[in-house]
Amino acid sequence: MHELMTIMRRLRAPDGCPWDREQTHESLRPYLLEEAAEAVDAIGSGSPAELAGELGDVLLQVAFHSVIAQEAGTFTYENVEAGIVAKLVRRHPHVFGDTVVSGSDQVVSNWQAIKAAEQGGRPRRAVDRVPSALGALSREAQAQKLAGIQGDRDSLLRTLQEAPESEEGVAAVLSAVVAWARSAGVDGEVALRARTQQVLEQLPDETTHGT
To answer: Which segments does the entry list as coiled coil (predicted)?
Structure first.
């Protein structure tokens, strides 16, 4: 990581890369989302080399934001690393402490309790607990989980029959699809991404025409 940070500082230097120097936290937002999505795609590809490359691109975003923040005097990469290390130790008392757990369900329950205590016991609004930058299907799935919404094939079919041909109707059907997927133990976002990839791979290559 030290070498990557050195390169990023060089790129951001006065005599570095004009494009890199122009970037801000805000301008880099779409790249962070894109690189994370491409890493997810790489997992589906089954190629370790491809995954390693895409994770490098995600790591680049971490370095980029850290250098920008250091220049502004807000935080450093060392702060980022120290923060996540402390959080992992704090939220795994069954590994780094004396807490005993019976299984992964209790690990998750303890994680949530520790997280709430870190925030002073103040409940967060539901809208703050589901990132707005998530894909629409993933965000709907998390919202349904928080709301305790269940779904199945029958409720999906009823929604399909009753939904009007409008934006609201389409949204209702998509929500029902997500609920059905959750009941089947399927991540709708991942499933649709895989399906879209299959469709794209079956399309003919673009042809160029000379003049």
So the answer is: none
DSSP labels for 62-112?
HHHHHHHHHHHTS--HHHHHHHHHHHHHHT-HHHHSS---SSHHHHHHHHH
- CB-CB contact of 143 with 175 (8 Å): no
Q: What is the DSSP string of 156-187?
A: HHHHHHH--SSHHHHHHHHHHHHHHHHHTT--
Rounded to whole angstroms, the maximal C-alpha distance in the chain is 74
The pLDDT tens digits of the residues spanning 56-103 come to 999 999 999 999 999 999 999 999 999 999 999 999 999 999 999 899
Global pTM exceeds 0.90: no
Which CATH number belongs to the domain containing residue 74 in this structure? 1.10.287.1080
Length of the chain: 211
Rg (the chain; Cα; Å):
22
d(CA 8, CA 114): 35
Residues 179-186: contacts with CB within 8 Å, 24+ apart?
Answer: 179/144, 179/149, 179/150, 179/151, 179/152, 179/155, 180/151, 180/152, 180/153, 180/155, 180/156, 181/141, 182/141, 182/144, 182/145, 182/150, 182/151, 183/150, 183/151, 183/152
pLDDT digit string, tens, across residues 164-190:
999 999 999 999 999 999 999 999 988
Question: Does some domain include residue 195?
Answer: yes
Owning domain of residue 105:
91-123
DSSP 139: H
In angstroms, the first-to-last Cα distance of the chain is 49
